[in-house]
Design brief:
Elements: E1 2-6, H1 10-17, E2 24-26, H2 29-35, H3 39-49, E3 54-57, H4 63-76, E4 81-86, H5 89-100, E5 105-110, H6 113-121, E6 126-129, H7 131-135, H8 141-152, E7 160-163, H9 169-177, E8 182-185, H10 187-194, H11 197-215
Parallel strand pairs: 1-2, 1-8, 2-3, 3-4, 4-5, 5-6, 6-7, 7-8
Bound molecules: erythose-4-phosphate.
């Protein structure tokens, strides 16, 4: 089970990395735009904070353009940077070549089990089904995770299923219950996963009582 952060905000990455349970980071062109920073500069900094796989996305639409960008990213950025590729026929061809070259990939914008299967067949290291964006259309994104995991169970597929576009903590739990290998989520969801009012209340009581133990010189 892997937990990734879905952000290009280095302060958030530092905060969650300090918890000791961060396995990787995913970025995309929109998250890079939100950071307001230079693409390679921010990905380089992220790769220095988290040693796990850091997804950097290609923006070319044709296979040769994708390959050129991917190779450039691999040569300019730290080793833990992996290449995020859109799930298109051109992306599939680029994934196949990069896999042959030993480059790890994350095939993104997956909305059907058949797309996930095609990306796995091309050798993708990760496939990223987008749950929340399916929920947004009035369908249940979790059905896609279930369908993919059911398909995976029939074969010896090494491609990891990376649940993406996660909107709330229950999404994370349900994905893990279905056996998804990885979930990528915003920092807000990491915080929500840890938060419980009874933990806060219980701790408050313990601290209050302990202060009295100390005041009585019995600590
Ligand atoms: C995954 O890698 C994507 O960056 C991300 O999960 C998209 O999520 P969104 O639908 O919240 O934009």
């Amino acid at each position: 089970m892997e937990f990734f952060l879905d952000t290009a905000d280095v302060d958030e990455i530092r905060e969650i990395a300090a918890w000791g349970i961060l396995d990787g980071v995913t970025t995309n062109p929109s998250l890079i735009k939100k950071s307001g920073r230079d693409f390679k500069e921010v990905v380089r900094e992220i790769a220095g904070i988290c040693s796990g796989p850091i997804s950097a996305e290609v923006t070319a639409m044709d296979t040769n353009g994708m390959l050129e960008q991917a190779r450039q990213l691999k040569s300019d950025l730290p080793n833990n940077v992996i290449i995020k590729i859109p799930c298109t026929p051109e992306g599939l061809a680029a994934t196949k070549v990069l896999t042959q070259e030993g480059v790890d990939t994350n095939v993104t914008l997956i909305f059907s089990a058949s797309q996930a299967l095609m990306a796995a067949k091309a050798g993708a290291t990760y496939v990223s089904p987008f749950i929340g964006r399916i929920d947004d259309t009035g369908h249940d994104g979790m059905n896609l995770i279930a369908e993919i995991m059911e398909t995976w169970a029939q074969y010896d597929i090494s491609t990891k299923v990376l649940a993406a576009s996660i909107r709330h903590p229950t999404h994370v739990l349900q994905c893990m219950q279905l056996g998804a290998h990885t979930a990528t989520m915003p920092a807000k969801i990491f915080r929500q996963l840890m938060k419980h009012p009874l933990t806060d209340k219980g701790l408050e009581g313990f601290m209050r009582d302990w202060a009295e133990v100390e005041a009585a010189g019995k600590a």
